[in-house]
Each structure stands twice: as structure tokens, then as C-alpha cells.
From TrEMBL:
<dbReference type="GO" id="GO:0016117">
    <property type="term" value="P:carotenoid biosynthetic process"/>
</dbReference>
<feature type="domain" description="Amine oxidase">
    <location>
        <begin position="17"/>
        <end position="489"/>
    </location>
</feature>
<comment type="pathway">
    <text>Carotenoid biosynthesis.</text>
</comment>
<dbReference type="InterPro" id="IPR002937">
    <property type="entry name" value="Amino_oxidase"/>
</dbReference>
<keyword id="KW-0560">Oxidoreductase</keyword>
<dbReference type="InterPro" id="IPR036188">
    <property type="entry name" value="FAD/NAD-bd_sf"/>
</dbReference>
<dbReference type="Pfam" id="PF01593">
    <property type="entry name" value="Amino_oxidase"/>
</dbReference>
<dbReference type="GO" id="GO:0016491">
    <property type="term" value="F:oxidoreductase activity"/>
</dbReference>
<protein>
    <submittedName>
        <fullName>Phytoene desaturase family protein</fullName>
        <ecNumber>1.-.-.-</ecNumber>
    </submittedName>
</protein>
<keyword id="KW-0125">Carotenoid biosynthesis</keyword>
<dbReference type="InterPro" id="IPR014105">
    <property type="entry name" value="Carotenoid/retinoid_OxRdtase"/>
</dbReference>
Length: 491
């Protein structure tokens, strides 16, 4: 008999962390209710549906398929029971703003030839880099991601020393990549995934070279129907396990303690329970839902954190096709350091942005009306930037002009649907601290045991899950966070 069998649990927030926690706890016998602020489940993985177009508003890359397989496998299910996958070819396309264009593809030999064309010996170095990346991934995932080590003493044992020997634990990604490749474009190719972690080459630990194994060796996939189909699959799984879902109920207060909580909402609803898990923004939960004496951290603590970028997003439905864009397309300045500086060092709207274009209609003809294309542009920007209608309009023009200049795709006269989403929207829709699109960045001082804990130190029976906790940012990491939180509760 599980320790939580028969316990009533409320999970606040229906993002991937909350949905995952709910499934694990329901499987352990708890009576679980997910209470979501917005009109749909998925958290930042919301969907925008209008005028025959369907957009994934948040995550759009399906990486680390092993994590999803392991998640569904825990419940004796297969991914294919809930959604189907298509492997993308190319994985993604890069337009460098000096006119150069490259495709990264599923065939490693082709990628090695591409690298060799830029730098003599780079093919061999890519193979060596990926061997290191694979080792970091396999050891890191099993012994440092799935195994939570929330206290310093958890690292003081022989197993940790044995498994960590040889891992890239010291230094930045920039220094690590420079050890293998001299050509700046090859360095950029190996580092673009840092955007998914909310960091820059200079502030992200070298350990995260493991993302290159994910990218080059494991592949990039598209779940048919988009990331929203993955949300639907996990929600369906939760329903099969007995999870109940409530939407359109913003939580305003967590009152009580273990065995006697009352979770109250803006609309006057009250949910009584034995345990509470918050997948809402960690800072918002503590600062807005709890009285001062029950908060683990002060406002000063949250203000002092390094946050992952916010984003300037334009969702576009356009007439005709958008050749030569691929499903995933990156547009990168020859020198991208000023853009990172404008995110982390001197916050400002980037004059020469690096950005990402997603065109799911290249793969999925259900996301746009016939004869039309569905795409969005995402520019990473500093959190907490001033965000006004005038700034948005000016920046919209800058981005559309930049797309036309550097990819050859002119969109201005073909737009039939458009929506802009940026800093203030992240704050309003997701109660996001400083309007970050992702959470706390993965800097050295905000990784592993330096992230906020899953279990509240001040309120017995209150737990946290999602991107602020370990293992961190990204859909796969939030799924794992749900498992870790559930295990902590049962334990």
C-alpha cells in the first residue's frame, strides 16, 4: 500500500510538471485534482486556434524521446498509444546573416562532411565531441537528473565521485566548444541549444554539451498535431489513472497545513486536501499565495536570480508557401555575442537579433487552411523589458524585414492572421516572474542543488514541481521533475 493511497492532493497548475506529478501520484493511489488558471491545460504549451490555424504557443521542439518513452512506460503504456511521431529531415536549417545557409540532418556522416567543409579536421572533432556528449548524457541523466540530490551531502559519496569522473563539470559551454572547434559558425551550431536552457555560451555550464547528443544522435521529431498532442496524451493518461481537471480557476491562496489544506481561487471555489503541489511559477506561489511567515524566500531573493530570456513572438497565418524555410529554422548574425549581452548583461531590445522560425505546416497539413502556411517567429529577449504597443509595432517591422532580408521570405503582404505575444503576456497569462518565458536560467549557481527545492521548508505538506526545481527547464525536464516531486511526497 502506497503512503499516499487515499490522500487528497491538489496540483496547482497544469503545465508538464503538474500533469506529470498528477499522473505519478494518481498511480500511487492518491485522489488528485489539477486546478489550472487558464482555459486550457498545458501551461506554457498552450495552443492558439483561430481562422483555421493552430499554433503551439510555447514549446515546439520534441527532443529527448527516451524521456517520453520512460514516462509512459512507467504506467505500462507506449508513446504510440497517445500520439505519433515524425522524424524531421532536416532537423533544422540555419541562415547565417552573411548569406550562408546550412542544413543539419539525421545522417551523421553528412553532418561531419558539413563540419569538415568549414574547418579541416572538424569531422573528426565532431565525432569526438559527440562521444563526450553521449557519455555526459547517459551518466548525467541516470545519476544526476533522474536521481535527485537536493543537499550538499548527497554529493559526498563514492558513487557520485565514480560517476562524475570525467564529466564536464567545470567551465562554460563557450570554453568547452572552443576546445574542439575554431570556426565561429561551428561553435554557434554546437551552442544554439542553450536557448532551450535559457542560457548563453558564457554562463551555461559545460556539462550541457549533453544537448548535442540529443540533437545529433537522438534526432528531432514532430508529434503529429504539435506539442499540444503530447499535452492531450498526458491528460488522457491522467484521466485513465483517475486524475480530475479543473480549468479557468486562478488560485489565490494556499491555507492550512498537511492534512488540512484549503486551496482557494479567484472565483470563490475552495478545494480541501491533505497535500498541495504547485506547478505555478515558484515565486508567484510563494509571494502571492502564502503569507510572509510561510515563504522560504524573500522578494529580494527572487529579484536577484538570473532568469531565462523572455520572448518576442509573432504567430502568423500567411497565404501561400514560405520556401525556403524548413520546419525548424534559425537565423543567426555572424556575431551573436551582442544579442546575448542584450539579454543577460545590458538588457535591451536587440538591434541585430538571432531568432527562430517554426513552420509546422511543412510537416502537418492540419495546422493551416489549404493554400496557407502556419509559422511563428521567436526572438529571445531580456526578461522585464519595457513592453508597449509602440515598441511591439516597431519590433514587428524589424523582425519581418529581417526575415525577408536574410531568408528571402517576404511576409508583409500575405498575412491573413497575426498575434503578437511578449513580456507582459508571459506575466499576465502565466504569472511569470519578470515575464521570463522559461524560468530560472541554468547558470552554475542555479543548477542542481542550487535550484529551489521540491519540498517546502516552511509548510509541511506543500511541494513544488516544474522548471524552477530540478532538473530544470524544458518539457522533458519538467516531466522528470514531476516524477521527482511525486517520489519525494511518497517518501
Amino acid at each position: 500500500m502506497s503512503a499516499v493511497a487515499g490522500e487528497d492532493v491538489v496540483v496547482i497548475g497544469g503545465g508538464f510538471g503538474g500533469l506529470s506529478t498528477a499522473c505519478y501520484l494518481a498511480d500511487a493511489g492518491a485522489n488528485v485534482t489539477v486546478v489550472e488558471k487558464n482555459e486550457q491545460l498545458g501551461g506554457r504549451a498552450s495552443r492558439l486556434v483561430s481562422d483555421g490555424f493552430r499554433f503551439d504557443m510555447g514549446p515546439s521542439w520534441y527532443l529527448m524521446p527516451d524521456v517520453f518513452e520512460r514516462f509512459f512506460g512507467h504506467f505500462d503504456r507506449d508513446v504510440s498509444d497517445y500520439y505519433t511521431l515524425s522524424r524531421l529531415d532536416p532537423h533544422y536549417r540555419i541562415f547565417f546573416k552573411d548569406g550562408d545557409q546550412v542544413d543539419l540532418v539525421p545522417d551523421l556522416e553528412q553532418n561531419k562532411q558539413l563540419f569538415e567543409s568549414y574547418e579541416s579536421g572538424a569531422a573528426e572533432e565532431l565525432e569526438r565531441y559527440l562521444e563526450k556528449s553521449q557519455r555526459n548524457y547517459e551518466i548525467g541523466m541516470e545519476h544526476f537528473v533522474y536521481t535527485d540530490r537536493p543537499r550538499l551531502r548527497d554529493y559526498m559519496d563514492l558513487d557520485v565521485l565514480r560517476y562524475s569522473w570525467g564529466l564536464s563539470l567545470i567551465g562554460s559551454m563557450q570554453g568547452h566548444v572552443e576546445d574542439y572547434f575554431e570556426h565561429p559558425k561551428l561553435q554557434q551550431i554546437m551552442q544554439y541549444t542553450l536557448v532551450f536552457l535559457g542560457g548563453s555560451p558564457t554562463n551555461t555550464p559545460a556539462l550541457y554539451n549533453l544537448m548535442s547528443h540529443v540533437d545529433f544522435n537522438m534526432g528531432v521529431y514532430y508529434p503529429d498535431g504539435g506539442i499540444g498532442a503530447v499535452v492531450d496524451g498526458i491528460v488522457e493518461l491522467g484521466s485513465e489513472l483517475g486524475v480530475e481537471y479543473v480549468t479557468d480557476q486562478p488560485v489565490t491562496e494556499i491555507a492550512g497545513k498537511r492534512g488540512g489544506f484549503a486551496v482557494r481561487t479567484e472565483h470563490g471555489e475552495e478545494y480541501l486536501c491533505d497535500l498541495v503541489v504547485s506547478d505555478a511559477d515558484y515565486a508567484h506561489t510563494e509571494q502571492e499565495m502564502l503569507p510572509p511567515e510561510k515563504r522560504q524566500y524573500s522578494q529580494e531573493y527572487w529579484d536577484s536570480r538570473t532568469y531565462a530570456p523572455s520572448a518576442f513572438l509573432i504567430y502568423l497565418g500567411v497565404e501561400g508557401d514560405v520556401e525556403p524555410l524548413a520546419h525548424h529554422t534559425l537565423v543567426i548574425p555572424t556575431n551573436w555575442e551582442p544579442h546575448f549581452e542584450e539579454i543577460f548583461e545590458n538588457p535591451a531590445w536587440p538591434d541585430d537579433p538571432a531568432y527562430y522560425l517554426c513552420v509546422p505546416s511543412k510537416t502537418d497539413d492540419t495546422v493551416a487552411p489549404e493554400g496557407h502556411s502556419n509559422l511563428f517567429a521567436l526572438v529571445p529577449i531580456a526578461p522585464d523589458l519595457e513592453d508597449t504597443p509602440e515598441i511591439r509595432e516597431q519590433y514587428r517591422e524589424l523582425v519581418l524585414d529581417d526575415i525577408a532580408e536574410n531568408t528571402g521570405v517576404s511576409l508583409h503582404d500575405r498575412i491573413v492572421f497575426e498575434k503578437v505575444f511578449s513580456v507582459d503576456d508571459f506575466t499576465d497569462r502565466y504569472n511569470s516572474m519578470q515575464g521570463t518565458a522559461l524560468g530560472m536560467a541554468h547558470t552554475l549557481r542555479q543548477t542542481a542543488l542550487f535550484r529551489p527545492p521540491h519540498r517546502s521548508k516552511k509548510v509541511d505538506g506543500l511541494y513544488f514541481t516544474g522548471s524552477y526545481t530540478t532538473p530544470g527547464i524544458g518539457v522533458p525536464m519538467c516531466l522528470i521533475s514531476g516524477q521527482i516531486t511525486a517520489e519525494e511526497i511518497v517518501k
